[in-house]
Amino acid sequence: MIKQYYVYILANKRNGTIYIGVTNNLKRRVGEHKEDIIEDFTKKYRIHNLVYFESYNDIKDALTREKRLKKWNREWKIKLIEEMNPDWCDLYNDLF
């Protein structure tokens, strides 16, 4: 069975605060953010909307991509989100 890994971006609103993470279970991890289960940055700033994600078969590739995205300037991150999701819709409910 091929394992999937996801690099994802959450936002609290359009052009608002964003968070970049990596997980092997996108539904569970975004659900945890939405329910504020974990005491972290996303809970503090109410970052709950899944606005972008990518999938990988290799965890090393996913972790490398996450680290690169975190180093990008804000303008590049916004452009990336808007290429996939121009309206910054919460993709979570459509996926699951």
Structural key phrases:
96 residues; alpha+beta; GIY-YIG endonuclease; three-stranded antiparallel sheet; 5 helices; 22% strand
Description:
Helix content is 43%, strand content 22%. It has five helices and three strands; from the N terminus they run ββααβααα. Strand 1 (5-11) and strand 2 form a beta hairpin. The two termini are 21 Å apart.
Short description:
This protein has 5 helices and 3 strands. With 96 residues, it is of the alpha+beta class.
Instruction: Please trace the helix and strand order, writing H or E for each element.
Output: EEHHEHHH
Which strand order spans the largest sheet, edge to edge or round the barrel?
A: 2-1-3
CATH topology value: GIY-YIG endonuclease
Q: What separation lies between the terminal Cα atoms?
A: 21 Å
Mean pLDDT: 96
The CATH architecture can be named as 3-Layer(aba) Sandwich
Number of continuous helical runs: 5
Shape: globular
Number of domains: 1
User: How much strand?
Assistant: 15-25%
- Helix percent reads 40-55%
Unreliable sequence segments? none
The oligomeric status of these chains comes to single chain
CATH class, please?
Answer: Alpha Beta
Task: Set out the fold topology.
Layout: E1 5-11, E2 18-23, H1 26-34, H2 41-44, E3 49-56, H3 59-71, H4 74-84, H5 92-95
Antiparallel strand pairs: 1-2, 1-3
